[in-house]
Amino acid sequence: MAKSTPKGNTLIYENCIVTYIDILGFKDIVKNRFKDDPNKVISLLEVFNYQANQYIGFHHGILEYGTIIRHFSDMIVRIIRFGPDESLAEQATICYLELSNLALTQSELFKRHILIRGGMSIGSICFNDEHIFGEALNDAYICESSRAKYPIIVLNERILDKMQEYSNEPPESDENLYSLVSKYNHNCYFIDFFFQSSGAGGLQSQDLGMRYMQLYRDFIIEEMVRNKKSPEALSKILWMKDYFNYTLSRSGYSSRDIKTLLIGQLKQTKRIDPIRSFYGIDVSKFDNWF
Fold first, then answer.
1. Which helix (H) or strand (E) holds 63?
2. Rounded-to-integer distance, Cα 240 and Cα 195, Å
3. Pair 170, 103: CB distance under 8 Å
4. Is the separation of the CB atoms in 115 and 151 below 8 Å?
5. Are 182 and 279 in contact (CB under 8 A)?
6. In Å, how far are 67, 72, 145, 242 from 206, measured between CA atoms?
7. Cβ atoms within 10 A of the Cβ of 118, count?
8. What is the pLDDT of residues 135-146, one digit of tens each?
9. Where are the beta strands (DSSP E) in 92-155?
C-alpha cells in the first residue's frame, strides 16, 4: 500500500509500523503520584516522544525523519510510514531502529517506576489529526490486550515475518534481533528491554548497564513487597523478577555481580530457587550461583 498525501478531506490507508502502548496504573499516577501537578504527567508522556524525530523512512536512499505519535490518556500510538519505493533492506532497518528506540523508551520508563504494556505490528492504517484506525492498529491492540499478559511490548507475526524475509533466518538465529527480542510461552516474542539495559545489548556500557540493573532490581523488590496482598498484580511482578534474573544469566556479568543483583523470593531469603526452564532454556547449570 503505497504512501501518498491525503488531498482535502480524503483519507487513504498507508503501510506503517504501528505500536499501541498502555501505561499501567495511569489512574493512580494522575490521582495520587502526580496529584495537582499536570506538568509531571506531561513529562512522563514526553518520554514516548523519545527519538521520535530520528527517522520516518527512506527517500532516494536517505533516511528521513519524524515519527507520528498520538496520546489519549494512558493510550499511546506510535506510527512510522513505509515509503512506496523502500527496499526490503530499508524497511528492515526501520524495524530494527524502532525496536531499539522502544527498548530505550521502556528502559527509561522503568527507571521512573513506570510499567507499560504494548503491541507492535505492520500493516495498513488511516490517520489524520482527528482519526486513527486500520488493520495494523487492530493487530497491535490485540497483541497488547490479549497476548501481553505482563509489562512487555509483544510483536505481531507481521513484524517477525518482515525481519525473517530480510535475513532469511528465524528470529532465534537473526544476530540483529538477538539482542532486541526475546520470547516466552513458545512463540510470543517481545522487546527485550532488560537485555538492552544491561549493557550486553550493545547500546550502552556494561558499567552503566550495571547501574540500570541495580535500579531495576530495587524497583522490582519494592513492587513485590507493595503488591504481596494483591495476587494478580504480584503475579506480574514475580514474572518480571524471573525475567530480570534470566537476563542476568545471559548478561556476561561476573558471577559475583550476578550474585549481588539476583532477586530472591518475597521474603528475600538468601537461597533463591533456580529458574530451570524459563523461556524453554535450561539454566540449571547456574545453580552454583544461587
1. strand 62-64
2. 13
3. no
4. yes
5. yes
6. 30, 36, 34, 21
7. 27
8. 999 999 999 999
9. 116-127, 132-133, 153-155
C-beta separation of 243 from 275 below 8 A: no
CB atoms within 10 A of CB 35: 12
CB 286 within 8 A of CB 272: no
Maximum CA extent, the chain:
67
DSSP string, 148-161: --SSSEEEPHHHHH
CA end-to-end span of the chain: 53
Tens of pLDDT, residue by residue over 18-62, are 999 999 999 999 999 998 899 999 988 888 886 555 555 554 444
Rg from Cα positions in the chain:
20
Cα separation, 290 vs 287, whole angstroms:
6
- pTM score above 0.90: no
CA dihedral 120→122→127→133, nearest 10 degrees, is -70
Residue 138 vs residues 26, 259, 284: alpha-carbon distances, Å: 22, 43, 40
Residues 208-245 pLDDT 10s: 889 999 999 999 999 999 999 999 999 999 999 999 99
Q: Cα separation of 276 and 137, whole Å?
A: 37
Residue 240 corresponds to which cell in the numbers above? Answer: 518480571
How far is 8 from 201, CA to CA, in rounded Å? 45
Residue type, 131: H
For residue 25, the SS3 value is coil
